[in-house]
Amino acid sequence: MKKSQTYREYAADCVRIAKSMSAKDRETLLEMARAWEDRAREADRQEKERQENEADSDKADSEKGS
Question: What is the pTM (predicted TM-score) of this model?
Fold first, then answer.
């Protein structure tokens, strides 16, 4: 499973649990959910960057072989 998907599941869990909590606890859980969503976006960005770097590396390798 991709890291970003796991982080989004954590965020969803925080939101789900927040619905049954007091106002103060709800706000804390919603802040946690936002933090997990931020982490998911960062994981997506890193994965995209990694894939682009691999593609560039593969392209450079194939050009060397030509």
Answer: 0.79
